[in-house]
């Protein structure tokens, strides 16, 4: 097998590692491409292409994350990862764990870790690399990596998100949610929301955001219901689609351009959280991006009111 063929076989895994470390589709793709360039020019044949490339993409991702964290400290409003519609890495025996590890909630929680802790956690807990491989990947001793793993696991366990274990139940509730959402059914929405549900948006200062979050079933159901009817009337669309391994949707304008993604956290038969990404800088990989400000103005004109 040629190096090109080996690399292409491993590309899904490399992207999956990089995305979980970085929380960015574009940066993960760049890290994978840089890994290929280093692999292609490496003078000798590695004993294991998988171990070699995993180490390379991990080191690149750690370096990128260190600089990205400085930018994220100055980020306007809540920060969410770039939405991922399909994880290219598949492992049927661990599909549920992989989906949960790429969720918006899990990736936001990973932001609390140092770059090294995050890389070690991803390699060990998500992809089950052994400690000798992890040590080579991050340039630390095995003992140091074990300590990093313990610290990372402690931080993650303290706030680890929980999701509905039965994916069919989760999908069925999401179908009901988006049905009520498109119908503007306040009562239907309220019945599906946890009492303390929170809806949070990532606009990055580049898209409309009425407030950082809405909390409570009454508030969230009314906000959603009041906006969706005029939005649909002006030609907008709410298209259900898995987002970061969880039930969600993509919102399009009348021209089919992407306006936002919406991801749902579902547990105990209720929607616990709704996370929306409207920052246009985070949506370009999903297709042509629409103008949220113009769409909101038109939506408000259609409902004869103003954003609240």
UniProtKB/TrEMBL annotation:
Q: What family does this belong to?
A: Belongs to the sigma-70 factor family. ECF subfamily.
Q: Where is the RNA polymerase sigma-70 region domain?
A: 7-69
Whether Transcription regulation counts among this entry's keywords is yes
**Would you say which domain of life the source belongs to?**
Bacteria
Record the organism: Asanoa iriomotensis
Q: Does the keyword NADP apply?
A: no
Domain RNA polymerase sigma factor 70 region 4 type, by residue range, is 105-156
Protein's name according to its UniProt entry: DNA-directed RNA polymerase sigma-70 factor
Ordered alphabetically, the record's keywords are: DNA-directed RNA polymerase, Sigma factor, Transcription, Transcription regulation
What are the GO cellular component annotations?
DNA-directed RNA polymerase complex
Quaternary structure annotation from Swiss-Prot or TrEMBL? Interacts transiently with the RNA polymerase catalytic core formed by RpoA, RpoB, RpoC and RpoZ (2 alpha, 1 beta, 1 beta' and 1 omega subunit) to form the RNA polymerase holoenzyme that can initiate transcription.
